[in-house]
Design goal:
Number of strands: 0
Distance between the termini: 73 Å
Number of helices: 17
Strand content: under 5%
Order of helices and strands: HHHHHHHHHHHHHHHHH
Structural class: mainly alpha
Number of domains: 3
Shape: globular
């Protein structure tokens, strides 16, 4: 069954992002009050991190911020000047997320090895796939085209020197390939009929599968290594004009691309400040009333998986009735009302909180002390910034990625940033009131 859309993982990603950062925040609060770590909290955080790691390909973006908070907890523990024996348990607990993450991936890898003869957990993170993709994209085209990692001219040159590539060429280079683009708003006219960066990795896997190499995981792994070796050898022998050896899914970035990336980054920041998810009735209709794609067998299949009905196929009679019912649904109306309130208050609150966050830097230098809540907010800003940078590179080089769907994990982090700034602002008043009550 050929299903080319995602049903479940996008729904998990943003809530799990919020849950992970909420748990690490609660752990900091709990330690501040109890002077010890919550064993249950650490276990839940560790399990969710292991789950989060395998949902999407780019989960690395949250690691620097989570590490920052873990090191902050380690610093607070060390600052208590406990003995080595008393510090042993909390530091062991702090290492638990990394242990569980490693064990979770190892268990899944071993299960996959038994069932599919491959230890890959997420194939697009595997060394052989990344190497094959990097080798294909290092071949220089006759004329470089934005959004196109491997042009038709590059693939034609690879065809002449790589027997492995010739095996998948009938599927990857076919004029009838559904992966080939039409002329549209974000693809220049010169890239019509090319395979854009957002699709090339999927087109490559699809072609390898049609060539018969996905009957086992081991066969696919062997094929990708063979493809990599043949292209890299051709580059070394000067049979192909190539850039430096690459092992990455990132496109080749030239100096001319920096401006596009910067523009996309600013657009991403603006999308955080003034979200456009429900900025017009047409957009609201898209997000609330959007139907499913695929076929009826796919709908039944995924409905069985999630034990809940799925939106009917778009343009079907069932979808027309579904859309009408959704428009009258009270829950949908409440969500739309909340979104209107969000639009009204979010932007000014964010700007005020950002100014307060900047002001706290001056206070910390003046008082020569660390503010834990400020550091927590700094970690949130770091995560948001990394997310936007990754999306900006993709948007500038591969396909439009600065949109509410891909930015969605950053929205709850921004709300956390606002909430923690509000708490930090009122903290002195709360402490003063608490002290007065104790004196009385």
């Amino acid at each position: 069954m050929d299903i080319n859309h995602r049903v479940v993982r996008e729904s998990f990603y943003a809530p799990l992002t919020l849950l992970l950062f909420s748990l690490i925040t609660l752990q900091l609060v709990y330690y501040g009050v109890k002077k010890e770590l919550s064993l249950a909290g650490v276990f839940i955080f560790s399990a969710l991190l292991a789950w989060y790691w395998v949902i999407r390909e780019e989960s690395i973006w949250i690691i620097p911020s989570l590490l920052m908070n873990i090191f902050l907890l380690a610093y607070l523990i060390y600052r208590q000047k406990k003995t080595i024996l008393t510090m042993y348990r909390p530091f062991l607990l702090l290492s638990l997320p990394f242990i569980v993450l490693y064990m979770g991936n190892t268990i899944i890898a071993n299960i996959n090895s038994t069932l599919y003869q491959s230890k890959n957990v997420v194939e697009m993170k595997s060394a052989e796939f990344i190497s094959a993709y990097g080798s294909l994209s290092r071949v220089n085209p006759d004329s470089r085209q934005r959004f196109i990692p491997v042009t038709k001219t590059s693939r034609a040159a690879i065809y002449n020197v790589s027997p492995a590539y010739r095996e998948i060429s009938p599927y990857l280079d076919a004029e009838s390939s559904s992966w080939r683009t039409t002329c549209n708003d974000y693809s220049p006219s010169t890239s019509c009929g090319e395979i854009t960066g957002g699709f090339f990795m999927w087109a490559l896997r699809d072609a390898v599968a049609k060539a018969g190499y996905y009957k086992t995981g081991a066969a696919a792994t062997t094929y990708y290594w063979r493809l990599t070796q043949e292209i890299d050898n051709a580059c070394e022998q000067k049979l192909l004009t190539c850039s430096a050896e690459r092992q990455t899914l990132l496109p080749v970035i030239n100096r001319d691309d920096i401006g596009h990336i910067f523009t996309a980054f600013i657009t991403g920041i603006n999308e955080i400040i003034r979200p456009t998810i429900y900025q017009s009735e047409s957009m609201r209709a898209y997000w609330v009333l959007f139907g499913s794609s695929g076929d009826n067998s796919a709908i039944d299949y995924f409905s069985t998986i999630i034990h809940d009905p799925i939106a009917p196929l778009e343009h079907s009679n069932e979808h027309t009735r579904y859309s009408k019912n959704m428009q009258e649904n009270k829950q949908v109306k409440i969500l739309c009302m909340l979104e209107d309130l969000y639009q009204l208050f979010f932007t000014p609150l964010l700007l005020v909180c950002t100014l307060f966050f900047s002001y706290k830097i001056k206070l910390m230098f003046s008082n020569k002390s660390l503010d834990i809540l400020w550091l927590l907010n700094a970690s949130l800003l770091l995560a948001i910034t990394i997310r936007i940078i990754i999306l900006a590179i993709i948007d500038a080089m591969s396909f439009p990625a600065i949109n509410p769907l891909y930015i969605s994990p950053a929205y709850p982090l921004t709300l956390m940033f606002i909430l923690i700034n509000i708490v930090n602002f009122f903290k002195p008043y709360y402490l003063t009131a608490l002290t007065n009550d104790e004196c009385n």
